[in-house]
Design a protein that fits this description.
Blueprint lengths: L1 H21 E9 L2 E6 L3 E6 L13 E7 L2 E7 H4 L12 E7 L2 E7 L1 E9 L3 E2 L13 E7 L2 E6 L1 H5 L9 H4 L1
Parallel strand pairs: 2-11, 5-7
Antiparallel strand pairs: 1-2, 1-8, 3-6, 4-5, 6-7, 9-10, 10-11
Length: 172
């Protein structure tokens, strides 16, 4: 059964890569000195950072939960999850509220930049890297003027097994 889930994950990720290569609108944000882009259609809203309620025994990248208009939302610090050098909370720190597979999840980032429309010609495939770091959620590299934008499959990242946020067997 695990092979079927793995195959489904690979197929979804390849679909995300193809969608990124075709272009579209991306919300851009910063993690440290790097700029990332995610599919704008996955974004529900952007909120200022507020200290979440910590959950006992949760991984360090899950900061806790917040109550968002009656919905309990897990908050993931992408800076910790993606091994950024420093993690500081300041007035620019925001939570991107995402809707992935019908579940609301918050992602903490250093700051939000803007929304960019990228054509397929502005997106290059992500380089193959054989490192210990998981780069499977990078769908491509966008080039806008002199900016390099790392395009991320945010749904694939948030629904990955190591996150433990969404049970794939329940959500299909």
């Amino acid at each position: 059964m695990n092979m079927i889930n793995d195959a489904t994950h690979v197929a979804r990720h390849e679909a995300a890569r193809a969608a990124a290569a075709a272009g579209g609108e991306f919300l851009t944000f910063r993690l440290g000195t790097e700029e990332y882009g995610i599919d704008i259609l996955k974004v529900q809203e952007i909120r200022s950072y507020e200290q979440p309620t910590r959950i006992a025994n949760a991984p360090s990248f899950i900061k806790g939960v917040v109550n968002l208009r009656g919905v309990i939302v897990p908050i993931v610090d992408l800076r910790i999850k993606l091994n950024c050098d420093s993690v500081e909370y300041n007035s620019f720190t925001v939570v991107i509220v995402l809707n992935v597979k019908g579940r609301v999840v918050g992602a903490v980032v250093d700051s939000v930049s803007d929304v960019l429309e990228l054509g397929g010609g502005a997106i290059k495939p992500a380089p193959e890297m054989h490192t210990a770091a998981d780069t499977s959620f990078i769908t491509g590299i966008g080039n806008v003027n002199d900016r390099m934008l790392i395009l991320m499959d945010i749904e694939g990242l948030m629904t990955s097994a190591d996150m433990g946020l969404i049970n794939d067997a329940v959500t299909h």
